[in-house]
Design brief:
9 helices; mainly alpha; 269 residues; 2 domains; two-stranded antiparallel sheet
């Protein structure tokens, strides 16, 4: 039976989330970022993302992109992984947004496409936007790939992020995998019991019913999980057994991140 759009999207999303969960094995490698305290990684990479957004020169942003590549290689993150998961996806979405700037930004004309004039300033603006997004997303992806999600959240909690936000992020990350996997299993079960090709109206009805059942299951699951957490002593703050300890190497790494971000902001004004 031919799969409908919603079913295909759901199954693809489930596979993508499964790959994202399995990608945490990179965090167990011996690399540059893995050797630093999670709090240093969070602060340092966020400072670099801030430097990317504040820099106005393409050369400076390009330098930060090369710096991100160096960090990825030293952290044993595959360039092919970054290309498939980050760069191509970001280029597709950001390129659509940046494309009109090539023609709408006034300036010195460099080419003519029919009746539309391509300007030098428009090319610079579009290139700067795409490069900024690519670099910023690369830094954040390196943080997620090289740090277990629980350690990221604990580092954010150590930086005084509200515990309510940490709890919501923890529960969302944990149970979104379960709900999407449940949805894919429901679709697969329905397909195995269906003979022939369903009409588009029947496919929409099946998708609507599946969404309703999934919503009911999610509400029931959330209540059960909350009661289970309450019975085990949960009072609003997630506790982890692992403790963070700063070493001299961590202080050196933090200083390196701050220097790189400061130089980028200063030279990119």
């Amino acid at each position: 039976m031919k799969r409908g759009f919603l079913e295909t999207t759901t199954l693809g999303f489930a596979r993508a989330l499964t790959r994202a969960m399995l990608s945490e094995h990179i965090a167990r490698h011996r690399g540059l970022l893995q050797s630093l305290d999670p709090r240093v990684r969070v602060v340092g990479l966020f400072m670099l993302v801030l430097a990317v957004t504040l820099s106005r020169k393409i050369t400076v942003v390009a330098g930060l992109f090369v710096f991100a590549l160096a960090i990825a290689l030293l952290s044993q993150v595959s360039i092919a992984t970054l290309a498939k998961r980050v760069w191509l996806v970001v280029l597709a979405f950001t390129g659509v947004i940046a494309l009109p700037a090539i023609f709408l930004t006034p300036g010195h004309p460099v080419a003519t496409v029919g009746t539309v004039i391509v300007t030098e300033q428009g090319l610079r603006t579009a290139a700067l936007l795409v490069l900024r997004v690519e670099t910023a997303v690369t830094f954040t992806t390196l943080l997620v790939l090289c740090t277990p999600w629980s350690h990221v959240l604990k580092a954010l909690r150590a930086l005084q992020l509200p515990k309510e936000a940490i709890t919501m992020l923890t529960m969302t990350h944990r149970y979104v995998f379960l709900l999407v996997e449940t949805a894919s299993q429901m679709f697969e079960s329905r397909r195995s019991r269906t003979v022939g090709v369903l009409a588009p109206a029947q496919q929409r009805q099946m998708a609507a019913r599946t969404a309703g059942v999934l919503l009911s299951k999610s509400v029931s699951l959330s209540n059960e999980v909350y009661l289970a957490m309450q019975s085990r002593g949960f009072r609003g703050d997630v506790q982890l057994l692992s403790d963070f300890h700063l070493t001299m190497w961590d202080y050196c790494g933090l200083l390196g991140f701050l220097l790189a971000a400061g130089i980028a902001v200063w030279t990119g004004r």
